[in-house]
Amino acid sequence: MEAGLVVIGAQTAGLAAAAEARRRNAAMPITVVDRARQPAAATCGLPWLFRKDSAAMCLHSQEELARRYRLDLRMEHDVTGIDLSRRTHTRHGSLLSS
To answer: Of 31, 46, 66, 88, which is most buried with the most CB atoms under 10 A?
Structure first.
């Protein structure tokens, strides 16, 4: 089984990285982890800055992003540690392999 990619952050930069990884390798398992309740992919943060409206920053639903880019989106998950030598990360005390 091919090693997968774990992207920490489901905001604009993290989702852009996951989408680029998907374009480069259609078969690679990609997991996106974020502590937020929903992903936020917007080209501009002004709606959040002025209205504190997180819905205005979401151009796509979590389900749509997962389906379109074949991502395993894990929202409301907090990564607390990364071990690069073992290729693992810790989430709420659980050790997960990448």
So the answer is: 31
In whole angstroms, what is the distance from residue 25 CA to residue 15 CA? Answer: 15
Sequence-distant (6+) residues with CB within 8 A of 79 are: 8, 33, 89, 90, 91
Phi, psi dihedrals of residue 81, rounded to the nearest 5°: -170, 155
Does the pTM surpass 0.85? The reply is no
Residue spans of the chain under pLDDT 50: 1, 93-95, 97-98
Question: For residue 74, which of 24, 36, 27, 26 has the smallest C-alpha distance?
Answer: 36
Residue 9 host element (H or E)? none
The whole-angstrom separation of Cα 17 and Cα 50 is 27
Q: Give the tokens for residue 77.
A: 């998950």
